[in-house]
Request: fold
Amino acid sequence: MIAAVCPEYGPPEVVRIEERPSQPVVHGQAKVRVSAAAVNYPDVLLVANQYQISVPPPFVVGSEFAGVITEVVGEAGDLVVGDRVIGTQMFGAFAEEVVVAATALNRIPPGVDDRTAAAFGVAYRTAYHALRSVARIDSGDAVVVLGAGGGVGLAAVQLATALGAHVTAVASSAEKLDAATSYGAKHVVNHRMGDLRAALREFLPDGADAVIDPVGGGLSEPALRSLRRGGRFVTVGYASGVIPAIPLNLVLVKGVHVLGFQFHDVAPDEFARNEAELGEMLATGRAAPHIGAVYPLAETARALRHVADGDAVGKVLIDVSSPE
Ligand SMILES: NC(=O)c1ccc[n+]([C@@H]2O[C@H](COP(=O)([O-])OP(=O)(O)OC[C@H]3O[C@@H](n4cnc5c(N)ncnc54)[C@H](OP(=O)(O)O)[C@@H]3O)[C@@H](O)[C@H]2O)c1
Reply:
């Protein structure tokens, strides 16, 4: 099978296309013929050896995929050969086939195409669990979304809007902000055009109820300052490459809550509820990812570079069914 391999740690350009042996399937696993895969920021970090966990090279890059089950060994719940599925794992997705624990797979709802399914998973699940179970968004809330043109950010714009919130989207280009507007944002701020704190004060004179922050760096503090008393700041990631240091007196004086999002911190009953609601939104088309760029498998390094540079609008996909 053809796969995009990280032969040594480094920038996206180290990734090469290689012929690799097909992996055997053991008990509890399934083999999936991949059709589409989504690039996530951690894929870039894993190749650079800057992620929380190191994977020793060589390894096949890619953490999120959609395709068809071609083989199952042992127990696989209600999944069978021929099912269209999505799945995630730390690495291995940018390849013609992937072998995973059957429990890592979910059936794609009828009527949803593979690209949409691949682009939906990590970004929408992150955004929704963070909005619903950490920021605890209610109808009418004012929500500021940083990185609002990126994968998680644009999903957060759409899903917060679906929850009845009024979204102020913050991003670095007109293209990203246009996408945020089309996904429901009421106000948009290009943080490269001036003072973020002043712009947020103008749109939200009474303060925001919540901030969703997948970016970090210099945007976090002015966004946190835009919160009203009792507001919630949710730190989701640090795509800027800078983990911000927030003066703690701000938290005390303003009376705000600073919270982190990780999947495993969501209570099991809320997790199940959120997943069911998301599944329904995907199946009915109420939530659909914006696919900003698609690369063939042979151009995986370019796809990773696109995301590494912060240029992605919505999701960047790899079309694995067209390797050239
Ligand atoms: N906690 C979790 O479980 C979880 C789950 C998924 C993702 N994450 C994290 O969330 C973050 C965002 O993920 P994503 O998929 O939304 O990424 P993305 O699509 O690449 O978007 C990230 C945004 O960050 C901003 N940015 C600023 N400087 C950047 C730089 N040097 N390189 C790249 N982006 C830069 C850009 O917004 P501007 O327009 O403002 O420049 C960009 O649109 C990542 O750090 C990821 O690891 C966390």
Notes: Residues 114-134 form the longest helix (21 residues). The pocket of NAP is lined by residues 40-42, 122-123, 126, 147, 149-153, 171-172, 176, 214-215, 236-241, 261-263, 307, 310, 312 (CB under 6 Å). The mean pLDDT is 96. DSSP finds nine helices and 16 strands in the chain.
